[in-house]
Design brief:
about 450 residues; alpha/beta; Rossmann fold; seven-stranded parallel β-sheet; 10 strands; about 50% helix
Length: about 450
């Protein structure tokens, strides 16, 4: 029984060692370099020992050296014996050194070779840009980070409500709320540190309503002197793979024309937080100033992307504020990436009441241009029992007749008004690979 167990462990160990030679890990080149260096060192040492052996006087210890050098065996046998021992010592030493150095960073229960392989796979993953805001973009990012590290989240900075709005008014900085949510979603370890980043103070203190992450980013803005640098440093703290960028660094405000019910009169509503509170139909939204300049790295990411995902999220207050930046819109239209729209599962009160899937598409393509998207993803799982005040975004005949439409079960069972991040990410990656083939 012990021999079988030993054989099993040996087989498993050999298998794990062979996995280090798999393509794409970037390890073989360093093994080869180390082996070459040791070989040259061994050749030099061998020449020195051979010279000593030939010229040494005949003394009592010369036969001992002859015995230890196995001269009584054929040269091939000696090569195999000494080479095997040397290779074993090298591998054992390298393994021990590497394990000692990386053990503080290993995740419990995972082998080092598995983690390296997974990291390399994601590092070579597709370049994906996600445009949106709120919980919707966080859902997309949380799922896609399992497939690629080359993620760029583009979020609006028109938010003027809640903690973000208060910090914006009091400190004169851009609103950090959506950026905080994206950083938390992209974090490698959404445990204690990420929970702390999302923690919201309560009680009667002056911090009530503020999240720790918002305050943290605000402090970094003051320390680093720039909003974009503060985002980068926050990402390092959370061990984020990917980038979170504001659509613009200009201080923009969202304004909407809202048609009041029954009387048909249009009024102008100022402020992102006020639009959903106004009863009526949103007719048009725009930014002030209307000539805001896009953040340059965002343009580069969009033009280099393999896939651009728009939504899900608040149509008028999260998605459109990004697209309304003129430079960003031009880059989106010029990009050759696969452009995908993810329709919302449920309508948003005060914003998209009674909207169907085709209404969402029409509202976006009025700004983006006709046939702006290559694929339109809709959820087709609508439970009979739904939470109170939830109204589904229905799949109407118009959207079903559109050849771009792709329907799938994307529902989050625990929060049925939202997408399931794992389901949605798989659909997005499958659609991309169906068009381009695997990029890894």
């Amino acid at each position: 029984m012990s021999i079988k167990i030993w054989a099993t462990h040996l087989k498993r160990g050999i298998g794990q060692a062979i996995r280090w030679l798999a393509p794409g890990l970037g390890v073989k080149r360093w093994f080869a370099l180390i082996l070459l260096g040791i070989t040259l060192l061994g050749v030099g040492l061998g020449i020195l020992l051979l010279d000593f052996y030939r010229n040494a006087p005949e003394t009592w210890w010369l036969p001992v050296i002859t015995f230890l050098s196995l001269r009584f065996l054929p040269r091939l046998a000696r090569f195999l014996i000494f080479g095997g021992i040397g290779l074993g010592l090298i591998v054992t030493g390298l393994w021990g050194v590497n394990r000692t150095l990386v053990i503080p960073f290993l995740r419990p229960g995972q082998r080092l070779v598995d983690q390296v392989s997974e990291y390399r796979r994601r590092e070579k993953g597709p370049r994906v840009v996600v445009i949106g805001g709120g919980h919707g973009i966080s859902t997309v990012l949380r799922g896609l980070k399992d497939y690629t590290h080359n993620l760029t989240a583009v979020v609006s900075v028109a938010d003027d409500g809640g903690s973000s709005g208060e910090l914006r008014r009091s400190l004169g900085i851009l609103p950090p709320g959506d950026i905080r949510n994206c950083l938390a979603a992209l974090s490698n370890d959404e445990d204690l540190l990420t929970q702390l980043f999302q923690y919201r103070f309560s009680g009667d203190s002056g911090l009530s309503g503020h999240s720790f992450g918002n305050l943290f980013i605000s402090a970094l803005v003051d320390i680093t002197g720039s909003f974009d640098e503060a985002i980068i440093e926050s990402g390092r703290v959370l061990s984020v793979h990917g980038k979170v960028m504001p659509s613009t660094l200009d201080n923009v405000h969202l304004i909407a024309d809202v048609q009041l019910p029954y009387i048909g009169t249009e009024i102008q509503v100022q402020g992102e937080s006020q639009i959903p509170k106004t009863t009526g139909n949103v007719r048009r939204v725009w930014l002030e100033p209307n000539d805001a300049t896009a953040f340059p790295p965002v343009l580069q990411a969009i033009l280099n992307a393999d896939m651009i995902v728009v939504g899900p999220g608040s149509l008028y207050t999260s998605i459109l504020p990004n697209i309304l930046v003129p430079d960003l819109l031009s880059a989106f239209q010029s990009s050759r990436a696969l452009k995908i729209l993810v329709c919302n599962i449920a309508t948003e009160k005060g914003e998209t009441d009674q909207y169907s899937s085709s209404d969402h598409v029409q509202a976006l393509e009025l700004n983006l241009g006709e046939s702006a998207f290559d694929v339109i993803i809709c959820n087709n799982n609508y439970p009979a029992a739904k939470p109170n005040d939830v109204k589904w975004v229905e799949i109407d005949e118009k959207i079903l007749s559109d050849k771009r439409t792709y329907c799938s079960d994307l529902l989050d069972i625990e929060n049925p008004w939202r997408h399931d991040s794992t389901k949605l990410a798989k659909v997005l990656i499958d659609l991309l690979y169906e068009r381009t083939g695997p990029m890894i």
